[in-house]
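Help needed: design a sequence for this.
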């Protein structure tokens, strides 16, 4: 399977790096990238072919991954439309709906939309995927294989659920960083050095998420198990409840979901 990435930025390089690490043949991957420095870097660091022109780049390709910025996608799709002859098109551009991309590609049906997140850059990503009904099962498998190179994937049956995935996993790393920031800051206020607070916080996040993912029990049960009557954890959680922390997090995610929908309207109109 020959794959062409259009746009050779951070996300494309992460995906290519992941594929190569899984022994995907470098000769079957190429990149269309307008910036000559970026092309040279891609060739040198990844050992894959990088070209400037779309016409040259998609020759003999079965899958085209659109990895340009959302604002650049309609222009790229306009150039791509007359060159398509049945290839699977995967878009990783945040916020652009398949209906808009399909229209820009001349009512094209072979589209999968992916919503990865930033930990994909270290191959610990989480990607939501949605396929138009006209995409066949082999093409869905191809899309799954490409995005699995940088982490875990889930398929959603309705595209609107990608906006929900955006609110959970797309924006999620920033919520976690925010929580980490608060824990580190409190740690230093309590007398720990910055380094100590950082290690204690990060390892606690790592350990807790590992425990939650390896346990058969739900997180509420795991939480109640570390909350002894009259202990420190109980006091801390009570304080968070009184401050409305859980509700505030949930409200923030609803706001992120609404913003994802607005962005789809704004970006798709262009
Ligand atoms: N980074 C993430 O964690 C993340 C997460 C979820 C989704 N995404 C999505 O992934 C996409 C790529 O993100 P990124 O962070 O990899 O962006 P990026 O680093 O800016 O990469 C995009 C690359 O495409 C190039 N480009 C622009 N127009 C082109 C054209 N017509 N033909 C060929 N190449 C072109 C850009 O060159 P110039 O710089 O010269 O314009 C740039 O090198 C975005 O749509 C983003 O929404 C990213």
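Sure. Designed sequence:
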């Amino acid at each position: 399977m020959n794959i062409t990435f259009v746009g050779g930025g951070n996300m494309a390089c992460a995906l290519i790096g992941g594929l190569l690490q899984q022994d995907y043949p470098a000769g079957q991957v190429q990149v269309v990238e307008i910036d000559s420095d970026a092309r040279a870097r891609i060739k040198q660091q990844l050992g894959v072919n990088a070209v400037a022109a779309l016409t040259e780049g998609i020759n003999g390709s079965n899958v085209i991954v659109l990895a340009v910025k959302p604002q650049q996608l309609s222009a790229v799709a306009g150039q791509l439309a007359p060159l398509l002859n049945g290839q699977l098109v995967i878009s990783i551009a945040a916020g652009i709906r398949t209906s808009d991309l399909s229209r820009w590609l001349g009512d094209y049906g072979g589209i999968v939309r992916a919503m990865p997140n930033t930990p994909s850059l270290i191959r610990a990503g989480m990607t939501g995927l949605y396929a138009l009904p006209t995409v066949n099962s082999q093409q869905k498998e191809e899309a799954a294989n490409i995005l699995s190179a940088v982490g875990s994937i889930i398929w959603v049956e309705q595209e609107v659920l990608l906006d929900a995935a955006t609110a959970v996993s797309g924006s999620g790393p920033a919520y976690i960083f925010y929580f980490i920031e608060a824990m580190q800051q409190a740690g230093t206020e309590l007398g720990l050095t910055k380094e100590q607070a950082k290690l204690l916080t990060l390892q606690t996040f790592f350990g807790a998420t590992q425990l939650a993912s390896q346990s058969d029990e739900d997180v509420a049960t795991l939480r109640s198990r570390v909350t002894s009557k009259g202990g420190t954890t109980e006091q801390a959680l009570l304080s968070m409840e009184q401050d409305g922390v859980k509700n505030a997090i949930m409200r923030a995610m609803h706001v992120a979901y609404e913003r994802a929908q607005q962005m789809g309207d704004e970006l798709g109109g262009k």
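The pocket of NAP is lined by residues 6-12, 32-35, 38, 67-70, 72, 76, 92-94, 116-118, 120 (CB under 6 Å).
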